[in-house]
Amino acid sequence: MGHGLADVKSVRENTPPSSEEAEVAPAKGRKRESTAKKVAPPVADAPTSEEEWAYEVAHAEASTDLAPIVGRNLRRLRTQRGLSLERLAKASGVSRAMLGQIELGQSAPTINVIWKIARALGIPFSALISTTAQTGTRLMRSQQSKRLSSHDGKFVSRALFPFDEPRRVEFYELRLAAQATEAADAHPPGTMENLVVTSGTVEIDRGEERHVLTAGDAILFEADVAHVYRNTGNVDAVMYLVMTYAETVG
């Protein structure tokens, strides 16, 4: 996703450039970014300083065992493309310091951050969280699932597909906390989202459109404009999303 999701965000959506460059210094177990010179207009809603750190680091309940996997994949894919951390930071809108922490496996990034990096590298979301390819029947036990979370833990995505072969379709389980909202940027042209709500009530805003879905309702829409998922109820909402791309990814 996404995002992509948060919406949900596409794994291939293009990210506008960001200019933030920052250094990380330890401070009682947390990293703080110093004031950086702006060389280009920042992303409109990009947080800074301590807000940015909270925004970029996954909630404590997110899968920390993904951190080394994402780190190894990020370093390999970045170096294959001949990109420095600084150039990738400008392309993705994720700070240079955070990218460095992710590559070292010292930070578990949020769903939002993984999407931003994937967009900037022009790769599917799953390429950053994939492990060794396997063949034959694949059984993915719920208790062994890798779950990605928003920074506040109110939005959680679980991929229900293997990550190691090219595909045009991805399948996700999404959970959105009561009264929570998750925003998604526009995906590449031709991307379709087919979503069904299995529990709770969810509002979906797509551009000027607004649709209310309750348990059992489904929706199919073109995801090439910004969209928002909003849980208007008092219980967590559960959704299943099939995302289809115009071209094969992976």
- What would the average pLDDT be, to the nearest integer? 75
Main-sheet strand order equals 3-4-5-12-7-10
As for the CATH topology of the domain at 147-249, it is: Jelly Rolls
Q: In the CATH hierarchy, what is the architecture of the domain at 147-249 at level 2?
A: Sandwich
| String of helices and strands | EEHHHHHEEEEEEEEEE
Q: Based on helices, strands and strand pairing, what is the structural class?
A: alpha+beta
State Rg. 17 Å
The total strand number stands at 12
* Broad shape: globular
Q: What's the helix count?
A: 5
Per DSSP, what share of the residues sits in E-state strands of 2 or more residues?
25-35%
Point out poorly predicted stretches. 1-62
What features would you describe in this structure?
The protein has 250 residues and is α+β, with helices and mostly antiparallel strands. Among the domains are: 66-128, 434 Repressor (Amino-terminal Domain) (Orthogonal Bundle), CATH 1.10.260; 147-249, Jelly Rolls. The protein is 20% helix and 28% strand. The protein contains 5 helices and 12 strands. It has helices spanning 49-56, 66-80, 85-92, 96-103, 111-121; strands at 24-27, 30-33, 147-149, 155-159, 167-176, 181-184, 192-199, 202-206, 209-213, 218-222, 227-231, 237-249. It has a 6-stranded antiparallel beta sheet, with no helix packed on it. Strands 6-11-8-9 form a 4-stranded antiparallel beta sheet, with no helix packed on it. Strand 8 (202-206) and strand 9 form a beta hairpin. Helix 3 (85-92) packs across helix 4 (96-103). The longest helix has 15 residues, at 66-80. The protein is globular, with a radius of gyration of 17 Å. The two termini are 14 Å apart. Keywords: DNA-binding. One of its GO terms (molecular function) is DNA binding. InterPro entries: Cro/C1-type_HTH, Cupin_2, Lambda_DNA-bd_dom_sf, RmlC-like_jellyroll, RmlC_Cupin_sf, TransReg_Diox_bact_type. Residues 74-128 form the HTH cro/C1-type domain.
